[in-house]
Each structure stands twice: as C-alpha cells, then as structure tokens.
Amino acid sequence: MKLWGGRFTKETNELVNNFNASISFDQKFYRHDIIGSIAHAKMLGAKGIISEEECKQIQEGLEGILSDIENRQLTITDEYEDIHTFMEATLIQRIGNAGKKLHTGRSRNDQVALDMRLYIRDEVKNVDEEIKHLMNCILRIMKEHVETYMPGFTHLQKAQPVTIAHHFGAYYEMFLRDRSRLFDIYKRMNYCPLGSGALAGTTYPLDRTMTAKLLNFEGPMLNSMDGVSDRDYVIEFLSALATMMVHLSRFSEEICIWNCNEYRFIELDDAYSTGSSIMPQKKNPDIAELVRGKTGRVYGALISILTTMKGIPLAYNKDMQEDKELTFDAIDTVKGCIKLFAGMIDTMKFNSKRMEDSAKKGFINATDAADYLVKKNVPFRDAHSYVGQLVLKCIEKDIALDELSLDEYKKVCPVFEDDIYDAISLKTCIEKRLTTGAPGPEMMRQVIQHYEELDAHFLT
Questions:
Q1: CATH code of 68's domain
Q2: Which residues fall within 8 angstroms of residue 21, CB to CB, at 6 or more apart?
Q3: Which of 357, 387, 421 is the last residue of a domain?
Q4: Count: domains in the chain
Q5: Are residues 348 and 383 in the same domain?
Q6: CB–CB of 209/246 below 8 Å?
Q7: pLDDT over 90 for what percent of the chain?
Q8: Range of the domain at 100
Q9: Is the distance from CB of 193 to CB of 113 less than 8 angstroms?
C-alpha cells in the first residue's frame, strides 16, 4: 500500500521502491507515530473535523496496534514504504473507513518531522540518564581518593602533583557541561511541527496549540515551512554526542596509558578486559580502546547530517530521510559507550602506592621548591634558575629533589634551610594548593560537596 499514487499510471520500479523505502529503519518510530496520531485524532475530534465516534475508533485502534506490536502479536513488515504507511494501512484494516480520516489536515512531511522530534526528545533524556550514572561513578571515586597522590601531566610529562579526585574531577566538569548542552537542546527543540502540513499549513481549522499540549511541547512551531524542514535539533544533538565522545575518548586514552606495563596505575576488572589468543600474559583494555575507536563513528554521523542539510532549499526534500539511520546509530553507539565505560571505571582498582611513587620521581615538586625561595624574597626568575640547576644535579645522580643534601642545596642558593624538605614533600605540595579549582584536599571536599548539592538533574 502507498499513501499516494492516484496520479500515477505505472508501478514504481522495484529498485526505486527499495531505494526510496525507509521502513527498515524508521520503524523505530512506531510508538512516536502512534502517540502523534492519537493527539492529531483527538484534536480533529475536538474541532468537529471528525465525529466523536470516529475519534474514539481511531484512538482505540491505534492503542490496539501499539499493544500488539509491543506484545509481539503484530510484526512490522517491509512490504510498506515507511512506518507511517504501515500504521495507516493496519488501522484501516482494523477499523475501516474511520481509519481513512486520520490523515485529514496532515502530511507525511509534518508527520515525519513530529516523529523524529519526539524520538530525539526521548533520546536526549535517555543519554542524559546514562551520563548522570557515569558522573555518579566518578563522584564516588573522587570522594574515596581526595588524598591519593599522583602525578599531573603536561605534554605527557610529569608536571605537578595532583590527586585522583582532582584528576577525575576534570572529567566530571566535562560531563557536567555535556548535560548542560542536552538541557539546552531539549528546551530549544521542544516545539511541535504537527499541523504544518506539507509546507503551508492547511485550510482545516486545526488547533495546533492543543496538539502541542497533548504531546508535552511548549507550543507549536510558528512557521510551517520551518516546521517540516528544520533539522537543527538533530545537528545540535549529534554535535553534543560528538563532544561527549571527545571526553570519553580522552578519558579512554588515559585508561589505556595507566593500564600499560610501564605505568600500572590501575588494574582493570576481568569483566571489562580481554586476553590474547596467543600471549597468555595479556590483559587488554578493549573497552577503553573501542570507546576511543567508536568516536570517529559518531563524528561521521554529525558530518553526514551537516553535509546533507547544507544545500537543501525550503521546504521538505527527500534528502532529509538521511537524517535517521546515522543518527540512530550514533545514539546507540554513545549510550553503549557510556554504559560500558561507567562499568569499567566503577570496577577498576587503583595502585595508589605506585601512583605516589611515580609522583615522587618526576621532579613534580620543583615548582614548590621555587615557590619556597620566592617566599624568602628571592625573585621568581632567579628561583626558577636555581631549582633548574638542582634538577640537573638530581638527574646526574639519578635521585629525587628530597634526596639532595642541604649542603648541595646551599651551594646553589644559600637561602635554603632544613625546612625545604617539608616544603617539597608531596603532602605539603598538595595540601597548600587551596585556591578554587586546585587539588588540595580541603578545596576538593568543598567541590565534592558542591557537586552533591548541585541541581545537576537538568531533565529528570
């Protein structure tokens, strides 16, 4: 069955049918299509465009179809062009002529636009829930490791001392911004295209505010051409998903580094690792590597929709059918990645002693040694030079700064005293960093408390 064909005298070529059909992927919309159709029917009934009895028949028929699909008593088949055709044909088969009136005052153009918007709106919430769970895992780790020391890096070289809580807090902030973006997208997209018709509305006295309200939208879209041709919300959502994957990929890269033999900062749980078919000693961070690898797949979906939309004149064009498959795949990919990544970090163990030892051996207290001199009125630039000389001496002897004798310190700068050793201890280096955003335990506890009190639920 087709929803068109009256002006055609020849059957569509089979290859054209297959190329044109979308039911293999838009059947994901079955629930949204039914919900939208019920709202449309209720509005038609309220406006007297169809009778109350016809409205009741349509609603009950659609609810029956939904129940049968979800109970697997009705199968969506590919003999139909799209999910909309399937739904209308099935409804007519079940309730007769009343089903033929459902499409009154509606086009597939605004029907497709509505279904996609309803679907994306739901998925924005679903992705938000996954991120919220991941952030809860991160927050638990932060609370447990406020005083677990590790080296902080720049250029992949040890730079200054931090804590696990501080390091993981950076990712908490990234995912907090991700949730904020989802919240913004939800607000901006939450307007209803139903009633836009093909592109210029309709002469039927539709109540678009009523349908918008029934479907929990803020209101109707105010331009019918934009209503059927807007895909900005898809672009924004895919952009947000791509940004999430940036964060997940960066985090995954660090997991891979920390897991390698040279670092051994962490131990991944067996349930989130794999082995080698030939090397029995291997325990591979496959989840982290796959998350890192799937990032390009989500980028591809974003580039695809941007490319599709860039040259389309108003209003609806068939090109827009390309907004679905890659979007569906990107959403499923991101949700899967977040879920698995959360499980991986929630079960991994930290080798705290090795992390602390690594911090001690990287001269990451050199800045603190320079600050020690500055506090004794040595100009910072001179202090920088003196400590640089001390680091060179340590490298020659293969020792750490706190292993140098006081005489060696004084030969470089006589201002040094016994208290230098306390000043450059890891504990002092961390605890004295008390500015907002720094890794000091006191500051980190304040930040964690802020996160716990923060109304970061956004959409739920």
A1: 1.10.275.10
A2: 78, 81, 82
A3: 357
A4: 3
A5: no
A6: no
A7: 88
A8: 14-104
A9: yes
pLDDT at residue 20 above 90? Answer: no
DSSP string, 128-173: HHHHHHHHHHHHHHHHHTTT-EEEEEETTEEEEEEEHHHHHHHHHH
3-state secondary structure 264-333: CCEECCHHHCECCCCCCCCCECHHHHHHHHHHHHHHHHHHHHHHHHCCCCCCCCHHHHHHCHHHHHHHHH
Q: Are residues 84 and 138 in the same domain?
A: no
Q: What residue type is assigned to position 115 of the chain?
A: D
The answer to whether residues 76 and 144 belong to one domain is no
Q: Is residue 450 annotated as part of the catalytic site, yes or no?
A: no
Backbone phi, then psi, for 153, in 5-degree steps?
-120, 150
Do the Cβ atoms of 337 and 252 come closer than 8 Å? no
Kindly name the residue from 247, 276, 405, 425 that is annotated as catalytic. 276
Predicted pLDDT at 11:
57
Same domain, 352 and 380: no
Catalytic residue among 84, 155, 229, 249: 155
| Distance between first and last Cα of the chain | 41
What's the pLDDT tens digit per position in 329-363? 999 999 999 999 999 999 999 999 999 999 988 88
230 and 373 together in one domain = no
* Three-state secondary structure call for residue 434: coil
Kindly tell me if the per-residue pLDDT of 8 is higher than 50.
no
460 within 8 A of 129, measured Cβ to Cβ: yes
378 and 266 inside one domain: no
Angstrom distance (rounded) from CA 74 to CA 67: 9
Instruction: Establish whether 277 is a catalytic residue.
Output: no
Residue 283 has pLDDT above 90, yes or no: no
How much is the pTM? 0.91
User: Could you tell me if 192 and 328 lie in one domain?
Assistant: yes
In a shared domain, residues 234 and 180: yes
Between residues 308 and 79, which one has the greater pLDDT? 308
Question: Which class for 118: exposed (0-12), middle (13-18), buried (19 or more C-beta within 10 A)?
Answer: buried
